[in-house]
Backbone:
């Protein structure tokens, strides 16, 4: 409303831009949240997230692994099993996700 | 890795699902972040967010206003001016965005 505000140079914080480059992409936040309970198989993640296709989930897990937020681990069998789990970096996001959930509970109650 | 984990029922927290319904949509988080500095005009928001088209920004602001996170206010002129600002609900997200930025600064430093 004020001149000072109107004239200020606004820039979007670089770190936040990076955060939304990851979390502002459908499913990524929910995948990380689902893995907060511990390691899970591909099909467990798919079931918990709900509504995601195999190919999109596969892309997202590859992307999150590339960002070192998720780790893919293979247990020698038999049977061989593959699990996905959070790295330290992924786990560090969990307190923020808790706060985000609390905010949504209070302030997004009436949305679809 | 354990049976207990493998067999647990995982569900994505409903509040967090709702949060990502809003923030997991490209630009929304950045628009809210830009408005944290105070009320801004349409073109100020567009410049600060960067890379967003008029029509997408218009859609996003309408959506965020519908969720009562952003308020559109018209100052009688002349000249008439329109500003967008955070509601209490939108402002309540700011501490969470700060934490998100701090997390990204530490854990997403090497991503593009």
Residues:
């Amino acid at each position: 409303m004020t001149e000072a505000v109107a004239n200020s140079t606004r820039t979007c914080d670089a770190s936040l831009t990076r955060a939304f480059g990851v979390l502002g992409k459908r499913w990524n936040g929910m995948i990380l949240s689902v893995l907060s309970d511990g390691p899970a198989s591909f099909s467990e993640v798919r079931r918990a997230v709900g509504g995601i296709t195999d190919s999109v989930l596969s892309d997202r897990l590859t992307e999150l692994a590339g960002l070192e937020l998720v780790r893919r681990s293979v247990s020698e069998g038999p049977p061989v099993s593959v699990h996905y789990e959070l790295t330290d970096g992924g786990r560090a996001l969990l307190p923020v996700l808790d706060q985000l959930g609390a905010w949504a509970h209070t302030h997004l109650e009436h949305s679809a």
